[in-house]
Amino acid sequence: MPKRLLLLVAALLMLAPTPALAQRFGGDYGGAVGLWLVYADPGIDAQDSFGRDLGGVLGVGGRLFFQKTRLRLGLGGFTGGFTGDGLNDAGNQVQGGLSAGGFIFEYLIVQQNLEVAAGAMAGPGLVSLEEILDLGDDIENLDRRRYTFVAGYPWVRLGYNPMPFVNVGLELGYFFGTEGVGGFAGGIDILVGLIP
Fold it and tell me: CA torsion sign, 96 to 44 to 51 to 87?
């Protein structure tokens, strides 16, 4: 076998995850921080959003947790703008945003290179809505509404360890809260281990 091919195979074997290496991401004790992208449908009635159905929100945020065997506890949150902003019946532009965060709980059902977890986030949330009123002569005025609520977001997460101390996950769940907020949610996160 040529020397270069042998070196390439050896390098791939060193980088390929194994159950022993994967356990180092969580193990008995661990911690991680990560980037979190979340899509959530707040499900706000058109009458509560200046007569316009605003659709879903793509938010960016982060997660921080500590792990004891199969249990992860931490904090996380995200914020983003409505992707469906447009004109209402009065011909005014409507736009908005959604923020939520709080305590995160996750239980690892399977803990190998490929992991399955059930988790949830609970904490405060904020919906902000703006109706842009055109008053003529290039003068605009904003009519604003803000809703604070208690948010919940349970999910099922499928994660994979492509290398030690790194985990990439996809989650599907339901985002809900007081003030009539609620709808489908999903997310992607990239976690980097801080504690071996």
Answer: positive
